[in-house]
Specification:
The protein has 368 residues and is α+β, with helices and mostly antiparallel strands. The chain is built from 9 helices and 20 strands.
Length: 368
């Protein structure tokens, strides 16, 4: 029965994660009565429980139906899940959904079992359509070579470059990320597409057909990265900026969220911190002191060309600014080594940048 549930509902898109459990007897080893939907086997079939969850606010699941056969169980689960999916709030789990449902569990039984609203046939049809049209996205990507290019790091080369920007340290004899935020790169942009220098050269940035609509890809330029965006519905159909976000120095601009304001401004929100920029000009919107460099771009015969300064010049300017910001903010990343034993993370109250502070004692078991 557990395998049947897994196969049937594995493609469901719900307002929140769903957990199910099936126990073969009343000993309840799978903790089915603490799941969004759980079944406990009886001598006559299954007892069906709904709207339970563990976590910070655990809730015991409520008995929904007793001694039901497998066919009836699947019918009830189809209706229950689709009713929840169509009426719950975004990111609302089944337990709080039931608490807010007028009439509670008794009303839910009337809807799902007695069909008091006359919608059960529609709910079942929706689930059948979901099951029939399910496709494994991972399998499609693994076997469809035309989709592989969407997972390339760079649009213009098969080369890779480590831009993860994460150091690793030993903690409790395990490998852990030595996480900290780099300081912002404050100040005007280094480069402006309206004033290219004579030393700038046209660099190929792949073919237009490879670009997603209203999205971006990354161009590798020496040891630097450029973000290139395709906006077919706008006057400026192609735009190019630096890929490093001035906020925390994360290389994610090409994966940002593109939008258009009522006044026509094309905005880009960095996908991690949601810092917003004017994509045409590179000027900071949410943080005016943070700005993006912009570069001339054109399409020629289906190929995308970006006019860029020498990569060494770009890299040197950003490195020098990064070093200067570290000095101004007294930035010190936690040292490599046993993180908890030697350092704890504090915060600089003036600029909100992490600084390392020496711990005065060995951590107790409670500190771990």
């Amino acid at each position: 029965m557990a395998v049947t549930l897994e196969e049937r509902y594995k493609g469901v898109r719900a307002p929140h994660k769903l957990k199910m459990g099936v126990s073969g007897c009343l000993r309840e080893c799978s903790e089915a009565q603490g799941k969004d939907m759980g079944l406990v086997a009886t001598s006559k079939g299954y007892n069906m429980y709904v709207c339970g969850n563990a976590g910070a606010k655990p809730r015991h699941a409520t008995l929904f139906a007793s001694d039901v056969d497998e066919h009836t169980v699947l019918k009830y689960v189809d209706r229950y899940l689709m009713f929840y999916i169509n009426t719950a709030k975004h990111l609302q789990r089944t337990a709080p959904w039931l608490e807010e449902l007028p009439g509670g569990i008794d009303y839910l039984k009337k809807v799902v079992i007695d069909d008091c609203l006359g919608i059960c046939a529609e709910l079942e049809a929706l689930m059948e359509s979901n099951v029939r049209n399910y496709k494994c996205e991972w399998r499609e990507v693994a076997y469809d070579t035309s989709l592989h290019k969407q997972f390339k790091q760079y649009v213009n080369t098969d080369e890779n470059m480590d831009t993860e920007q994460i150091e690793y340290i030993e903690m409790r004899n395990q490998r852990h990320p030595n996480t900290y935020d780099l300081p912002d790169l404050v100040g005007p942009a280094f480069f402006n597409k309206e004033a290219p220098a004579d030393s700038w050269k046209w660099v190929e940035a792949g073919v237009a057909a490879d670009y997603p609509k209203n999205g971006g890809l990354t161009l590798k330029h020496g040891n630097t990265e450029i973000a290139v965006f395709h906006l077919p519905d706008q006057t400026d159909k192609w735009l190019a900026t630096q890929n490093i976000c001035p906020h925390k120095q994360v290389c994610v601009i090409s994966r940002g969220l593109v939008g258009v304001k009522p006044d026509g401004m094309i905005t880009l929100a960095d996908p991690i911190y949601k810092t917003i920029y004017d994509l045409r000009t590179g000027k900071g919107v949410s943080h005016p002191h943070l700005n993006l460099s912009t570069f001339p771009i054109k399409e020629e015969g289906g190929k995308i060309m970006v006019r860029l300064p020498p990569s060494e010049e770009i890299a040197a300017l950003f490195k020098n600014l990064s070093d200067e910001m570290k000095k101004q903010t007294s930035f010190n990343p936690p040292k490599r080594g046993h993180h908890l034993e030697n350092f704890s993370t504090g915060w600089n109250n003036e600029r909100n940048f992490p600084v390392a502070t020496k711990m005065t004692k060995q951590p107790s078991p409670v500190d771990w």
